[in-house]
């Protein structure tokens, strides 16, 4: 897929991977980049650097992504690429069991980590389908393939996000819609630094947001669905598919090494 001269929207782009995706898109020659974030000032700062548009947008708020899509289409005529990237981490209660996080955390993760992708696709697809072209780069996580220790809300919602990305690719690949799922392990961002519980996500090293964004944009350009910036993830995923029971045993052992 040729990403030159594309109109692009990036959510959660005030910092971390989203900001790196926005900057990366601009550096590769976008027609325009809309930088959306819960934190409007952070979005405006990134947008200023790349001559884009900064928008305050809570992707978990009713109507927010719909307004973001409508406004971008009105101003720029179309959206070629949506990097649906905003996501949140809510950990299990320290010392608590796997379902210890309160319903509010589960619902917030469901809303931001899953429904925001559904809603932004619902808003943007009609015009893309009419044109017969468009692309989605959905930031999931290796946790959507391989789970993650001490963060059940995150693991479950990232699996759901990957499931939705698969449905999008399967249903609309024949309509000219490109879909990629970006699934890194640990990335050096505020999210990883603020984690309340050991997750083991950094076991294979912590990548920079810039490297992860570059891998995402390269993968999208190459027409790949599954983008794995940490190469070890492919091997773990193969192991899981080959012997699911053995894989669960391996994860239990890994968990013991983190909590003991
Ligand atoms: N950091 C990691 O180790 C890691 C690993 C795998 C996947 N991811 C995923 O990458 C994505 C980006 O995470 P990051 O590491 O850059 O995190 P981050 O916390 O550094 O940045 C996330 C950005 O999203 C914004 N945001 C949060 N909630 C929002 C909302 N409701 N609406 C709009 N914006 C919102 C924040 O203000 C922030 O600017 C997430 O989907 C995350 O799950 C992160």
Rg (CA only): 18 Å
For the largest beta sheet, what order do the strands appear in spatially?
3-2-1-4-5-6-7
Number of discrete domains: 1
Strand content is 5-15%
SSE pattern, N- to C-terminal: EHEHEHEHEHHEHHEHH
Give the biggest sheet.
7 strands, parallel
CATH superfamily: NAD(P)-binding Rossmann-like Domain
Alpha plus pi helix count: 10
CATH fold name, please? Rossmann fold
Morphology call: globular
CATH architecture: 3-Layer(aba) Sandwich
Fold and architecture overview:
This protein is of the alpha/beta class and 260 residues long. It has a single domain, classed as Rossmann fold, CATH 3.40.50. It has ten helices and seven strands. The protein has helices spanning 16-27, 40-49, 64-76, 103-131, 143-146, 152-172, 190-193, 209-221, 232-242, 244-259; strands at residues 7-11, 32-37, 53-56, 81-84, 134-139, 177-182, 226-227. Strands 3-2-1-4-5-6-7 form a seven-stranded parallel beta sheet, sandwiched between helices. Helix 3 (64-76) packs parallel to helix 4 (103-131) and helix 9 crosses helix 10 (244-259). Bound molecules: nicotinamide-adenine-dinucleotide.
SSE map:
Layout: E1 7-11, H1 16-27, E2 32-37, H2 40-49, E3 53-56, H3 64-76, E4 81-84, H4 103-131, E5 134-139, H5 143-146, H6 152-172, E6 177-182, H7 190-193, H8 209-221, E7 226-227, H9 232-242, H10 244-259
Parallel strand pairs: 1-2, 1-4, 2-3, 4-5, 5-6, 6-7
Helix pairs in contact: 1-8, 3-4, 4-6, 9-10
The structure holds nicotinamide-adenine-dinucleotide.
Question: Care to give the gist of this entry?
Answer:
The termini are far apart. The protein is α/β, with parallel strands linked by helices. The model has no long low-confidence stretch (mean pLDDT 96).
């Amino acid at each position: 897929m040729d990403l030159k001269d594309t109109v692009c929207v990036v959510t959660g782009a005030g910092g971390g991977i989203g900001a790196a995706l926005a900057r990366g898109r601009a550096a590769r020659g976008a027609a325009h980049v809309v930088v959306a974030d819960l934190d409007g000032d952070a979005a405006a700062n990134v947008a200023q650097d790349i001559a884009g548009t900064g928008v305050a947008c809570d992707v978990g708020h009713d109507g927010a992504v719909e307004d973001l899509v409508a406004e971008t289409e009105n101003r720029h005529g179309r959206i070629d690429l949506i990097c649906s990237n905003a996501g949140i981490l809510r950990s299990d209660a320290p010392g608590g069991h796997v379902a210890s996080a309160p319903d509010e955390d589960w619902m917030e993760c469901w809303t931001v980590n899953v429904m925001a992708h559904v809603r932004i696709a619902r808003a943007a697809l009609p015009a893309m389908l009419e044109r017969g072209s468009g692309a989605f780069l959905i930031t999931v996580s290796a946790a959507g393939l391989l789970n993650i220790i001490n963060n059940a809300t995150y693991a479950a919602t990232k699996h759901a996000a990957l499931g939705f990305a698969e449905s999008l690719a399967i249903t609309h690949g024949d309509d000219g819609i490109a879909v990629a799922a970006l699934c890194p392990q640990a990335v050096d961002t505020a999210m990883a630094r603020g984690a309340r519980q050991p997750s083991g996500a950094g076991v294979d090293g912590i990548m920079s947001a810039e490297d992860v964004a570059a891998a995402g944009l390269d993968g999208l350009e190459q027409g790949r669905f599954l983008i794995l910036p940490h190469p070890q993830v492919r091997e773990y995923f193969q192991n899981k598919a080959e012997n699911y029971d053995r894989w669960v045993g391996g994860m239990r052992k890994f968990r013991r090494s983190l909590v003991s």
